[in-house]
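Hi W., the adenosine-5'-diphosphate complex you wanted:
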Amino acid sequence: MSNTIELKQVNKIYESKAIFKKGKPAHILKDVTLEIREGETLGLVGESGSGKTTTTRMILHQEPVTSGEIYYYGKNLSEMTKEEEKEYHRNVQVVFQNPFSSLDPSMKIEDILAEPLVIAGKYSKAEIKEKVKKILSRVGLADDYRKRYPKEFSGGQRQRIAIARALIDDPKLLILDEPVSALDVSVRGQVMNLLKSLQEANRTSYLFISHDMASVAFLSTRIAVMYFGRIVEYADTETLLSGYRHPYTALLMKSNDVVNLDEDGYEGEEIDPPSHINPPTGCPFAARCPYATDRCRSEEPTLAEVSEGHKVACFRQDEIDLKKAKGGLVKEKAPEYMI
Ligand SMILES: Nc1ncnc2c1ncn2[C@@H]1O[C@H](COP(=O)(O)OP(=O)(O)O)[C@@H](O)[C@H]1O
Ligand SMILES: [Mg+2]
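Structure:
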C-alpha cells in the first residue's frame, strides 16, 4: 500500500520571538515520524499545545521543517519543482477548526466552492457549475444555498461548506484540524458522520486531528498520540483502544470518559504540560505520570515497537497495568454519534 504522506524524523524549532522572553528557541516538534496510507484515516490526538497544528503546517508546506523529511507519494517536499508543488497544494487540502474565519464573507457560496476549480484552470464553466452542484448535495446542503453568503449559515453549515470546498477537486489528502471542536455539540455528530461517509465513498486519505480521543477513535484507521511535540504511542485503532500502553494515552482515554481507569487509581492530570522555554529532562510526561521513576526523569524514552505496528515511548510500558479490563469498553461510554 502506498503512503500518501510520510514524515521522517521531523523537527520544528521556532527561533526566539517576542513571546519567548529569554530568547530561547522552542523545540515544538521532536522526531515526528508517521505515515498516512492511501485511503486511510490517520488520527492525531493530543491536548492543546501538543503540536498538532504545527504538524499540519509542516505537511501543508507553509513553513519549512527544521530537520527531517516529508514525502508525498515518495516525493520529498523540499525537492519539488514549482509545478509539482502546485499539484501538491491542489491535492492536499485542509479544513480548520473555525468555520467563521475560513470563508470569505464577501463571496457567494457558489464562488467560494468554485474558486479552487477556477485556480486549477482546467475546467469549463459548465463543468464547474456541475461540480458545485454535486458537491453541495454530497455534503447535504440544498442547491439554492449556492446564491447565499456565509453569514446566512450556522457553524455546522459553514463547516459543511468548508469541507465541500476542500473536496471539490478530489484531493488525495484532506487534513481535518479539529474540524468539529468549535461546533455546537448537537451538530458535531452530523459533521463527523458526514466526514465518515465521504471518506467511505471517495477513499480520500484523511489526517484527522483532535484533542478528543472519542472522535479520533470514531473516524480513524490508525492513531498517533502526540505529547509535547512527540509521538508517544502509535497503533491501529483497535490495538490502541484495547491495548494502549502509554500512561498519557490512558489519561486521554480517561479525560474523555471513554474508558474508566479508576480501579487503577490513575491520578495526576492536574499538572500542566511542560514548558517549551524550560523543557524538562527525561520523559516530558514524567511530571504528570504516576508511574514515573528516576530513570524517567533523567532519560527520554524513544518510540519503540512493542508488537507489530504498535509503538510506544515509555520505559515502563511492559511493567505497568494501565487498566484491568481490556477491550470492548469504548463503545459503552462513547458519545452518542459513535453508537
Ligand atoms: N510561530 C510560533 N513560534 C513559537 N511557538 C509557536 C509558534 N506556533 C506555535 N507555537 C507553539 O507550539 C506549540 C504547539 O502549538 P500547536 O501546534 O498550535 O498545538 P496544537 O495544535 O496541538 O494545539 C505551542 O506551545 C505553541 O505556543
Ligand atoms: Mg491546533
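The mean pLDDT is 89.

W.
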